[in-house]
Structures are given as C-alpha cells and as structure tokens.
Design brief:
130 residues; 5 strands; 5 helices; Rossmann fold; alpha/beta
C-alpha cells in the first residue's frame, strides 16, 4: 500500500464501541481513522487534521451532530470536507429530510453492515479522488 495515498477519516461518535467497530472496518481497508468521543472534541480534531472525510453521529450529549455540521460548514477551512451522517434507524423522518436540506454527503443508519459503511465511504471518497 502506498502511504502517500492514505485517507484520513474522523469519526465523531459518543459510543466508544461504535468508534472501535468503524476503526476495525476501515483500518483493514487502509484508511486512517481518528475517533472523537463527542462533538466538541470532534470539531477540534477536524480542524487539526483536516481529514478527507468525517463520519458524524447526530445524537451526542455535549454537542449534537447538527451543531458540529453547521460549525464545520461555517468555517472556511473545514466547509469542503465531506460528511457522512451516522444515525439510528429509529430517528424521525425530519432528521433524514434535514440531511437533504443541509446537503450532507451521505448517511448510514445504525445498525449498519461493514459493507454499507465501505460502500458509503468509497462512494464519497471516490467522487473526490484527484
């Protein structure tokens, strides 16, 4: 594997087991996954690393995913980073409709299969590969 093409992904998620699962799936495919246990830490990490992609949970106690998303889009240095929202299947349709309005790049419903995660990541990163 050519190390110059390693893609960095920030996973902002308040469940450590979910971060571990996503790291396990994506690290095996050659991605470098950085986990952040909440919205505030996630924003700091995104600004530090400038990842190729952000996986963003909507429901977090300290700062919800919409707040993180809005702050990323309001910041010139992070507004072009693609975002895949990871949301619980049970969340209401308003949230999903909001994704289309907010121009989120994609979303995955929990629980998801490793293949669903890979398909979504490859779809987004495949679009922006140079």
């Amino acid at each position: 594997m050519n190390t110059t093409t390693v893609k960095h992904i920030v996973c902002i998620e308040d469940e450590p087991e979910m971060i571990d699962l996503i790291q396990l799936i994506l690290n095996r495919r050659g991605f470098n996954v950085h986990g952040a246990p909440g919205g505030k830490e996630g924003l700091v990490l995104v600004r530090e690393i400038h990842p190729d992609l952000v996986l963003l949970d909507l429901m977090m106690p300290d700062m919800d995913g919409w707040e993180v998303y809005q702050q990323m889009k309001a910041d010139e240095s992070t507004r072009d980073i693609p975002v895949i929202v990871v949301t619980a299947k049970a969340q209401n349709i308003d949230k999903v409709l909001g994704l289309h309005i907010a121009k989120v790049d994609d979303y995955i419903a929990k629980p998801f299969s490793p293949q669903e995660l890979m398909d979504s990541v490859e779809k987004i990163l495949g679009q922006k590969s140079t």
